[in-house]
Amino acid sequence: MNQQTRQWLQEQRAQAHQPLLRDRQDLCVDGEQVGSIEPALVQQLGPTLLDAHAVHLQHRDGQWDLQGEGSATQRLNRLALALRGAGLAGAWRDEQLAVCNGAGQRIATIERGAVRPLGIATRAVHLVGAVADGRLWVQQRSQSKANNPGMWDTLMGGMVSAQDSLEQALARETWEEAGLELASLQGLRHGGHVDFSRPSDEAEGQGLMREHIDWFAAQLSESLMPANQDGEVQRFELLHPQTVEAWLVQGRFTHEASLILAAYMGW
């Protein structure tokens, strides 16, 4: 790794954990802290819209308690709909993600498009795929993707949905994004993880990304070609490690993929 790459890596690591732009206060459900929210966002939602979705955010002891009828999941998803109605939600996916308390215990689920505005922690999974001579398969994200359209990524990257275990998410996303069955891969291993905590531009810049990404690595035979199944990938390329390094420093890869590929290369 040369000096330019070393400096780039330092910058990438620093950007993964950034201070808050503004004050955030804890978001609690049934006495459990599950996320955080900017007071200005609550004001933008307003009592009328919240009432229309049968939820209420009560400010008490410096935190916001989500109140209303029904389970924690029902209330959180009605809050998500209120965010959507105010134009403050992220891309709506009709996909539920797990909501955990501070101890990591799952207490509810919520629509994916609401996690960043509410500062709810998420989990994701990535796969680094190589061939025998060390070249790496990478994908270019579709131009229609809500986040990082057209940028380059690992062979596969996706969220762990509420219905998935980590292993199930790895298998599902590998098939959907690359058309590959895990059984066809050689030497599949858990490589490690990267964590992010940084402001997000969702909710008019009032979002917070908190994410834990587990990454895996495997070898593909020369005859095995990835083929996208869900329309979220433009194309795949098989690159020499030197080209991957150059593209990383040039900023062609997503931030998440950059740190994962750096870890894979042992930097």
Question: Would you kindly provide a written description of the structure presented here, covering whatever features stand out?
Answer:
This protein is α+β, with helices and mostly antiparallel strands. It has two domains: 3-17 and 122-264, Nucleoside Triphosphate Pyrophosphohydrolase, CATH 3.90.79; 25-114, Transcription Regulator spoIIAA (2-Layer Sandwich), CATH 3.30.750. The chain is built from seven helices and 13 strands. The strands form three sheets. Strands 7, 8, 9, 10, 11, 12 and 13 form a seven-stranded mixed sheet that branches. Strands 2-1-4-3 form a four-stranded mixed sheet. A hairpin with a 2-residue loop joins β3 and β4. α1 (3-16) crosses α7 (255-264) and α2 (39-52) crosses α3. The longest helix is centred in the first third of the chain and has 14 residues, at 3-16. The radius of gyration is 20 Å and the shape is elongated. The relative contact order is 0.16. The mean pLDDT is 96.
